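[Discussion] Sanity-checking designs against the backbone

I'm trying to build intuition for which residues belong where. Below is a C-alpha cell string of 107 positions. I'd appreciate it if someone posts a full sequence so I can compare it with mine line by line.
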C-alpha cells in the first residue's frame, strides 16, 4: 500500500483553482487501486495536509502522470504559498477500529 501526503499553505483560490482541483480529485478517485483520502489543517501554521492512499504504486504513478496534475504543478504558485509531497509505502496500520479510518479495513 502507498500514500502520498501533500502538505501546503494556501494563498487565494479562484474559480480556475477549484475547477482544476475537482478534476484532479476525480482523477485520483478513478485511478487504479485508489483507497481513499483524508485532510488535516494545523491552525497554528495554516498548513494543510491531504493524504491519499492506493493499494499499489501504479495508481499513484497514474495520478502523478495525469495531465491535470501536471498542469497544477506548473501553476501551483498562483494558489499555494509553498508545498511538500511525501510518498510513502505503508508497512502497517492498526487501531481499535473506532475511528472508521479509510485504512481500518485494509489489514
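Best answer:
Here's mine. Compare freely.
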Amino acid at each position: 500500500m502507498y500514500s502520498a501526503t501533500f502538505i501546503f499553505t494556501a494563498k487565494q483560490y479562484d474559480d480556475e483553482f477549484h475547477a482544476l482541483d475537482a478534476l484532479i480529485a476525480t482523477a485520483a478517485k478513478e485511478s487504479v487501486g485508489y483507497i481513499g483520502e483524508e485532510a488535516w489543517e494545523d491552525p497554528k501554521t495554516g498548513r494543510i495536509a491531504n493524504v491519499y492512499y492506493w493499494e499499489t504504486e501504479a495508481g499513484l504513478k497514474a495520478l502523478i502522470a495525469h495531465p491535470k496534475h501536471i498542469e497544477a504543478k506548473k501553476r501551483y504558485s498562483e494558489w499555494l504559498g509553498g508545498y511538500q509531497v511525501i510518498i510513502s509505502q505503508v508497512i502497517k496500520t492498526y487501531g481499535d477500529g473506532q475511528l472508521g479510518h479509510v485504512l481500518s479495513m485494509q489489514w
